[in-house]
Design a protein that fits this description.
The chain is an all-alpha fold and 214 residues long. It is built from 10 helices and no strands. α2 packs across α5. The protein is elongated, with a radius of gyration of 23 Å.
Length: 214
Amino acid sequence: MTEVASKGAASAAPGEPVPAPARRSRITPEREAELYEAVLDLLREVGYDALTMDAVAARTRSSKATLYRQWGGKAELVAKAVRHNKPGRAGEVDTGSLRGDLHALTLASDDCEMEQNSALMRGLAMAVHSNPDLLRAFRDHLIEPETAEFRRVLQRAIDRGEVRADNPAIHYVMHMMIGGFAARTMIDEQPPTQSFLLSYIDAVVLPALGVPTA
């Protein structure tokens, strides 16, 4: 008999059942969202390299053991926090046209959110290239799911006859969208905005796919 079981048996009265070990409590969706928001705040404040599980535990009043049990490590927690911060899933948006879908996805975030996310992603981009665990977590929880969602949007456009199935630009829509978002700050020294991205979609993405914008 183990020491724990012996203590449990000793504390129970003769003839009474030994109490079962307490079950681990499951994190509620509300608590999970609160944790993710705290992680993103810390990322904006100190960056990925300086972020620690101890800091997350202190900020969220959680135990470090709970964080590791739930997420396994910092890379997994950060990737899931970024994914949770995304405004809905692209594949669920269906306005009846590809232009409408891409515009709706752009308008799901306001200019303030875009500016915050742009700064966050710039910082994480450097960390991703120097941290294999973070790169793997990003591929699993952000890049591959988002790519699959965009494929659904594009497949609907193909099924409607808006885009030819053999159009080579289909394979580069994610690259174009991310490129426009990231290049805005690098080239123009301005944060991405709804107005800029809507114009970019109409001037670059849709023409590449052979979709009229008028």
